[in-house]
Design goal:
Elements lengths: L18 H11 L9 E2 L11 H11 L3 E8 L3 H5 L5 E7 L3 E11 L4 E5 L5 E5 H13 L3 H9 L7 H13 L4 E9 L6 H7 L2 H31 L5 H46 L2 H49 L3 H45 L1 H7 L7 H30 L1 H14 L4 H46 L15 E2 L15 E8 L9 E8 L4 E5 L6 H8 L7 E6 L2 E2 L5 H5 L2 E4 L10 E2 H5 L9 H13 L3 H6 L7 E2 L8 H13 L5 E5 L7 H14 L3 E5 L2
Parallel strand pairs: 1-8, 11-18, 14-17, 17-18
Antiparallel strand pairs: 2-7, 3-4, 3-7, 4-5, 5-6, 9-10, 9-12, 12-13, 15-16
Length: 722
């Protein structure tokens, strides 16, 4: 609906076709590192605007970056934009249609947004204008109806505009939309790049400077009080000088706490993102070997490692600053070299005790992990235990595990108490003894005051260093349990652990859904060999398969013959041991995982597939973008009815928007199987792989499902028992 006036955003938006250029310009303007990969993007911007997000994700990945979608409600767009920069925004204007806005920064106090224009100049515009343009993406269909209502009210501007905004806001209050795509480094990128993006080196340097200034104020206060007290000149001037030193330390301490807190939050978020990415990128076989109990335990250990690593690092860093100052002041006091030697020897003794604590902490951690793993496994197998195990024996193993845990906890707590008591109480007497020779030799009162201040500062520093060292020792022990996830994060999609010229070339997800000509192979396997790491023999040997567009292939075999392994190789969940797997003539190493997954979708076996606690629509549209469009919901209803789930939809009060899963509507095995099939068919792929997807269906329902699959799957691979 054209208003006949020029849009305020005219000339400030980037055409969709310039998405790659907009991303690169925004990254440079935001001073993000551009760790380019050797990936290339196949084709330009898609004609289907609903797939623009997939294409922009591919472009960002090819540049070594990542786009994080910011979903929000219609009424909360402005607050979301305040936290989204740097980001790309979809906006709709009358003159240009759908365009991209490169948001560089926002100011809540001034109510402005700083954007990067296509000529790479920076412009300031009202934040409300940008908010309105983003909201227009979901308002467009309602504006004509709202305007018809307003015409009968005979309101004039500006009341008419305010009324339109109020009506649209009320109608769309609970409507979700993608407010922005925040540009950031992928979790698996080099740690140095992440630290640079967070300005971590400069923030750590600021911490050190603040710590030195604070301790300088403390030492100056001690010198002033000591000088006045020992020489009998404690007049008003000395007191004012001492108070000034104390007051100066207050804002410095506040700045230190704020800097440390914000840096800890940023580093914690980075670590959690890397851990989550690594957990999702673990090889399938490795994840299976651990079991759910082990990975729940690893989750707990990762939280403990994060807290210990951050707390221990900051505490130890500040303690080293205090200890260095204490050592330098000790040299100028009456203790001299003797005091410095005593301080070093004391720290060495504490270091030996802290190292010994690492073994005790490892034993405590192992017993705790064993208990967590056993608890989860017993919860999952509770029904089996009720049916097959005598109640009198249920607690035998639990009691033994608890006893081992209590013993390990007692050893760790006792050792920690000894270390902390020695660190808190031991250094001050040693420092005073080291000061006595200088005092007996007639040291000045000012020198004695400085020596006492150095002893107190050193005692506090040693106590902090001991606490930080114990935390770091614990973090080092816990690191072993989460290291596989961190290693997997470095190999995740978007990771740039190698220089661009050394990285393998990759092809980002294709934007075209058109299959190749029928005389060309779509998917091809040649002499594929695969063996599980713990298996003495190969599961697949010299396996070959050629699949052309539109073909339907049935793979049959007995249990353990490798059917499911072959399905996981086809869908990209596993890499073959040797041989060649080609998709559109390109091998798996050439594709990004996202690119391979955009062409092939699978429905794994029933025990490997799950109904997620959410709406039925979310479960069947899991492979599509969120929030779902009305077209997506309509397609989901149609497909569910074709799969014989029409009666289920009629029973559900909310239809496809009904909550299902553990906390919602309970589904039978047959209904779940059909949802798994619908999930695979709705992913807009070229090849659908169904692994024993019809085992829970009766013959009549299976014929209906097979007819639907036959009609909707572009190319089909069905795996079944003979």
């Amino acid at each position: 609906m054209s208003t006949g006036t020029k849009s305020p955003l005219a000339g400030l938006g980037w055409a969709i076709q310039l998405g790659a250029e907009a991303l690169e310009a925004l990254a440079r303007a935001a001073k993000l590192p551009l760790p380019r990969t050797a990936a290339t993007v196949a084709g330009g911007a898609p004609e289907d605007l609903n797939r623009t997000g997939e294409w922009l994700d591919a472009v960002a990945q090819s540049q070594g970056l990542e786009l994080d979608l910011r979903y929000t409600r219609h009424a909360e767009v402005e607050s979301t934009l305040l936290r989204a920069a740097p980001a790309l925004l979809d906006v709709f204007t009358d003159e240009e249609g759908l365009q991209l806005i490169a948001l560089l920064s926002t100011s809540a106090s001034r109510g402005t947004a700083r954007i990067l224009a296509p000529d790479e100049t920076v412009r300031d515009i009202p934040l409300s204008l940008l908010t309105t343009s983003v909201q227009a993406l979901v308002e467009w269909d309602l504006i004509p109806a709202v305007d018809r209502v307003l015409e009968r009210t005979q309101l004039r501007e500006p009341q008419r505009t305010r009324a339109r905004r109020a009506l649209l806001g009320a109608q769309l209050a609970n409507t979700h939309l993608v407010a922005a795509r925040t540009l950031r480094l992928p979790p698996g990128a080099r740690l140095s790049h992440h630290l640079g993006a967070l300005s971590a080196p400069s923030r750590v340097m600021l911490l050190l400077v603040l710590a030195v200034l604070i301790q300088g104020c403390v030492l100056a206060g001690w010198w002033l009080m000591g000088q006045g007290a020992f020489e009998g000149q404690l007049d008003t001037g000395w007191l004012w000088a001492w108070a000034l030193m104390g007051l100066t330390a207050v804002p410095l301490q506040a700045a230190l706490a704020w800097t440390q807190g914000t840096l800890a939050l940023d580093l914690s978020a980075l670590l959690r993102r890397r851990l989550l990415t690594g957990a999702l990128s673990l090889p399938v076989d490795e994840a299976r070997r651990g079991g759910i109990g082990e990975y729940v335990g690893r989750t707990f250990e990762s939280a403990g490692m994060e807290q210990m690593a951050l707390a221990g690092s900051f505490t130890s860093l500040l303690a080293v600053v205090d200890l260095s100052l204490a050592a330098s002041v000790t040299m100028s006091g009456p203790a001299g070299w003797l005091g410095l030697i005593a301080l070093g020897a004391y720290c060495a003794v504490l270091g030996v005790l802290v190292v010994r604590q690492s073994k005790l902490f490892q034993g405590w951690t192992e017993s705790r992990v064993v208990m967590t793993h056993a608890l989860i496994e017993r919860m999952l197998g509770h029904r089996t235990r009720l049916a097959q195990e005598q109640p009198s024996r249920w607690h035998e193993e639990e009691d033994q595990e608890l006893a081992r845990y209590a013993e390990a906890s007692e050893r760790w707590d006792a050792g920690t108490a000894r270390v902390m008591t020695l660190a808190r109480r031991g250094l001050l007497p040693v420092a005073i003894i080291a000061t006595l020779p200088g005092v007996l030799d007639g040291a000045s009162t000012a020198s004695i005051a400085v020596g006492v201040g150095a002893a107190l500062l050193g005692a506090r520093a040693v106590m902090s260093l001991a606490a930080g060292s114990l935390a770091l020792v614990g973090a080092r022990v816990l690191f072993a349990s989460v290291r596989p996830m961190l290693d997997a994060a470095r190999l995740a999609p978007g990771a740039t652990s190698h220089d661009a010229e050394d990285a393998a070339p990759q092809v980002a997800p294709l934007t075209s859904t058109e299959p190749p000509p029928k005389d060309q192979s779509l998917l091809e396997l040649r002499d594929v060999f695969f063996k599980h790491p713990t298996s003495p023999r190969a599961v697949l040997e010299r396996t070959s398969l050629t699949l052309r567009p539109g073909e339907r292939v049935l793979l049959e075999g007995s249990s353990g013959s490798g059917k499911s392994t072959l399905a996981s190789i086809l869908t990209g969940l596993r890499r073959q041991g040797s041989g060649v797997v080609l998709l559109r003539g390109l091998d798996m190493a050439t594709w990004t995982p996202g690119g391979w997954g955009a062409q092939i979708a699978g429905a794994p076996q029933f025990h490997e597939n799950h109904i997620i606690s959410g709406t039925l629509a979310m479960n069947v549209l899991l492979g599509r973008a969120w929030p779902h469009t009305q077209d997506d919901l309509k397609l989901a209803r149609e497909l569910c009815e074709e799969l014989g789930l029409g009666d289920l939809l009629q029973r559900m009060p909310a239809g496809v928007l009904q909550m299902v899963g553990e906390r919602g509507w309970q589904l039978s095995h047959g209904e779940q199987s059909r949802i798994f099939v619908a999930r695979a068919l709705l992913q807009r792929v070229q090849v659908v792989v169904l692994d024993e997807a019809f085992g829970a269906l009766d013959p009549v329902t299976m014929r209906k499902v097979m007819a639907c699959v036959e009609a909707r799957a572009p190319t089909l691979v069905v795996i079944a028992h003979p």
